[in-house]
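writing this on my phone so excuse typos. first protein, seq and then structure
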Amino acid sequence: NKLVIPENIILLFQPPYCPELNAIERVWQYIKQQIKNIFYTSD
């Protein structure tokens, strides 16, 4: 029951939660900032 990894595959291990390495976290940050700018503009 051991996992067999082919020769052409390289496994990269990441910390359990690392937002700076997760691209979707940057997308969500951008979207949230855009929404905040729509509703809360500075006068």
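second protein below, same order as before
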Amino acid sequence: SSIMSLNLEFDVRRSSFTLHARFDCVPGETVAIIGPNGAGKTTLLKAIAGLVPVDDGSIRLDREILDRASSDDFVEPDRRPIGMVFQDYLLFAHMTALENVAFGPRARGEKVAEARQRAKALLESMNIADCAPLRSSSLSGGQQQRVALARALAIEPRVLLLDEPLAAIDPASRHELRANLSAQLRSFGRIVLLVTHDMDDVRAIADRVIVLDSGRVVWDGPVTDDGWLPR
């Protein structure tokens, strides 16, 4: 098919479970991945990002093989068109917000001026332009979350992976940040996978929900208007 899609057909063996991923994602779709602790949610994201190799099967993006167990096909994480926001953001503490966001484009060969311009525009789009010169270690949780999202988007990824992006945010700020994140993802328009424990995140942000349990997909369906979710 001509439509770009992420095709997941792989296993990752862990000591306590084997992750069996067998599904596709298409652009414009935000897929929430939910399930109990130890279900394989973060392992799924790490495999797509290239941080965990697959033990069986393959991961393809738009027909390009990112990882295939039966061959040497493996695209290194920093060569994949994939942006990731980790639960604790993993920002470079010694760098400013602007430098953090410009880091990915710079690492991929973009000129300094262009990378900084791109970073500035992204920070502006997230309403945190005033954070640009500040060290990331001095930012609030909400500001760090937006910088991490801007950094992931700066490489113009075709897939965005979000691991509990709002978990570290205090409840008072979470509603606003959730709305902000939802708007950013809609304008992004590519493939998004969101791991979360929060049903409010699922209802506000996702249009499809996949439930993992012990490494297996036990539910895969749309998030309906009334917020119905599998019990």
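Helices lie at 41-49, 97-107, 112-125, 141-154, 171-188, 199-205. thats all i got for now
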